[in-house]
Amino acid sequence: MNLLEDFSPGLFFMQAIILIILIVLLGKFAWKPILSALSEREEGIESALKAAENAKLEMARLEASNEAAAQDARAQRDEMLKDAREIKEQMIADAAGQAQEKADNIIASAQEAIESEKKAALADIKSQVADLSLDIAEKVTRKELSEKDAQLALIDKMLAEANI
Amino acid sequence: MFTAYLKTAFFALILTAFATAQAQDNHGDVDHHEQVVTDGGKVNTKEEIKSYIEHHLQDSHDFHLFSYTNDANERKHIGFPLPVMVWSSAGPKFFLSSKFHHDDNAQVLVKEGDATFFKLHSKIYELESGAAAVSYDGDHHPSNAHKVFDFSITKSVFGLLAVGLIIFLLFRSLARQYKIRSIPTGVGRVLEPLVLYVRDEIARPNIGENKYRKFMPYLLTVFFLIWISNLLGLTPFGFNITGQIAITSCLALFTFFIVQFSANKDYWKHIFWMPDVPVLMKIVLIPIELLGIFTKPFSLLIRLFANITAGHFVVMSLIALMITLKAQFGAVVSTGLSVVLTLFISVIEVLVAFLQAFIFTMLSSLFIGMAVAEHDHHEHAGTEEDDVDEVRERFI
Fold this sequence. Notes:
The structure holds 2 protein chains of 2 kinds. In chain A, 95% of the residues lie in helices and 0% in strands. Chain A is mostly helical. Chain A has one domain (14-162). In chain A, α2 runs antiparallel to α3 (148-162). Chain A starts with a helix and ends with a helix. Chain B has helices spanning 2-35, 46-57, 155-180, 187-207, 216-233, 245-262, 265-272, 279-324, 326-372, 377-395; strands at residues 62-69, 75-81, 83-88, 91-96, 110-112, 115-120, 123-127, 145-147, 149-150. In chain B, a hairpin with a 2-residue loop joins β3 (83-88) and β4. The chains are: A mainly alpha, B alpha+beta.
């Protein structure tokens, strides 16, 4: 079989036609949809992987920020507790001070009031005693003249009244 | 790179010489064959087996499954005729190959209108007007007839159509599956990795990430066409599609034209005015590089043809062992030997069927890749040439 003699131009021609038709037909109906579907799928997988990776990073970031926030919150809470304790002590101290002061004030004013009341009462007593004395004196002088015994009884009566 | 070209050319030369020697043997055998006393056409001598194999390796005009000789010593052929379409001196002629009555030795003359045809060694000739019978010259070529342009649906064309249909149906179904689901089921699950293989292992690394898409339809079509054709050649249907030099030439020519038409400025510059070498070398390199343009597709066509032809030849010869060794070892041993050896070689041939499809597609994409590559001249010198050499050394 000589290669050149074996070469059939007709077969070559038919093969060329069949090959062209096959390439065109397969290209249009098979390879193009298959390849585009494949690359689409690959892109999908790639983007999904990327998204997953991103999500993981996001998660890590969130977790870290959560942790930080928790830490922050804890610190804040401690701070607040400390503040509150301080405030409480402050308040208690303040309140105690104020109460003391008020009590002192009240006591002072009460003493003052008692003092002034006492003074007023003494003055009052003094004036009443004077009035009584005057009254008694007047009555004594008026009755003495009339009857001795009656006058004495009156003085006793008066004194008994004055004792009240 | 040049050593690789030289090797290819050398290889091709040896093969051609071998083929020519074979052809000469062949003519001697055929002469002998015609003198053999008829025994009902049984294929049972070495010469008959040899011519049977030769006949198988050639294209044929019938779809022939098998033949047997019946009790009345008549040769019966099982198969069906295929349409013959020829362009003769009297215009186009169409008839069925059954008109030749399985004759392949110019015994049956078919008259179609004004033209008379006969078939000799799987080729259709037209008898010159006025001649009544075929006469031969010294080389056993018909002297009063000429070949016609024969675009018949021969067995190989029939096989190609079948392969084309198989590929189309398979991959059309795969393409349709993607409309409903993103991961195919059934046969598509097998086909998808193959498509991915061609894309990711053959086209992408050789052509480059940015440019491979344009060539995918060609590469995929050629890969599956060659592969399925090779596999079909291993079935008992007896196709020998990729063992036809016309078919491998056509495939290689397609690669050749695709390479030339998609080549960029750099490619031509490397051929006609190689950068970074002295001027004298540039001039010397022009014819070598020009030759390289043609040796590349030539190596493609010869490699595929030679591998498949050799495979068919070896398998058929091993099957024939059961006849040729029958006299020495007896029927059982020779048959057993034949079956074991044929099985062994057939398994290798299944591998070769894939390998040859892979190599053809791979080298095609490599050549395309070299033509479309945009390179830095300094980097180029070391990398791509090494790749080519490496690939060639692996496969030649």
